[in-house]
Amino acid sequence: MRIPPRFVQVIAVAALPLALAACSPSSSDSAAPAKNLNAGLMTGTQLKKALAPASFFPSNLSALSDGFSDSGDEFASPAGRDTAKPDCTKFEKTTWLDVSGFKGGVSFAQGEYANKDETEEMVQEIDVFQGTTADTVMRQIRAAAGACATFTDLNDHSKVKLSGSTTSGLGDDAYTMTMTSGHWENGTTLVAARVGSAVVTVTSTAGKDNGAANAAKLAGNIVDSLKAAGAKG
Predict the structure, then answer these.
(1) Is the model's pTM score more than 0.70?
(2) DSSP 198
(3) 168, burial (CB in 10 Å: exposed 0-12, middle 13-18, buried 19+)
(4) Which of 61, 109, 133, 164 is within CB 3.0–4.6 Å of 70 for a Cys-Cys bond?
(5) Per-residue confidence (pLDDT) for residue 85, from 0 to 100
(6) What is the rounded CA–CA span in Å between residue 50 and residue 9?
(7) pLDDT mean by block of 10 residues, the chain; 233 residues
(8) Residue 29 pLDDT
């Protein structure tokens, strides 16, 4: 069975220098403090607690030691969106959020589970964005899926078909995609769901249904956890 290649997503945490204002005896005015655009957003440490626990996953899947990372207690500087034509093969990667043109949010957490020979895997990720960027991320994921209805797999050069549809009742917005190929024993299901400023992305190849049932359950578990944690809208 073909498994999407895994890679480590690294988000650089920006240093926050203190701006020191010089005081003048003749000046009574003071600069207004800059608005904190990260106020109320969840940190990577908090997002890690919202990921589904090990007990959630099928018994034949185990946590991969190199499959977990998060942004800790600091926020990264928000990155701009890459407006180039989407690279369809990114849908096959473990962290596939950047098909949207965004490398990640200002905070994130992710985890990966797989069976012994990694022929089945389930991956979960949460990224948090400032302002209304999460809405833009969801729109761009839909646009990328539409542009990638068919593409060529880089590993065996087979034809991959990708179809997607809006999923109701899952967070504030959700979209589910299925990838299949005649060269694969099983397909892959991807789910993107927004809860306020957070975007959940899930991958599943576990199950005979292209991983669909397990992907839906995993996305639902994370969405419920974010709601319970009071994810900012």
Answers:
(1) yes
(2) E
(3) exposed
(4) 109
(5) 93
(6) 19
(7) 39 39 48 85 98 97 96 95 94 95 97 95 98 98 98 90 98 98 94 98 96 98 95 66
(8) 55
DSSP assignment of 138-168, as one string? HHHHHHHHHHTSEEE-TTT--EEEEEEEE-T
Residue 230's pLDDT is 82
H or E element in which residue 229 lies? none
Sign of CA dihedral 169, 50, 218, 160: positive
Place of tokens 């419920």: 224
Task: Give the C-alpha separation, 121 to 30, whole Å.
Answer: 55
CA distance 144 to 32: 41
Beta strands per DSSP E along 101-140: 107-114, 121-128
70: helix, strand or coil: strand
Nearest to 223 by CA among 177, 168, 171: 171
Q: Which two tokens stand for residue 24?
A: 């003048």
Q: Where are the beta strands (DSSP E) in 42-81?
A: 62-63, 69-70
Rounded to whole angstroms, the Cα distance separating 145 from 86 reads 9
Extract the tokens encoding 92.
């096959």
Separation CA 143–CA 23 (nearest Å): 51
Query: What is the spatial distance between Cα 166 and Cα 193, in angstroms, rounded to a whole number?
Result: 10
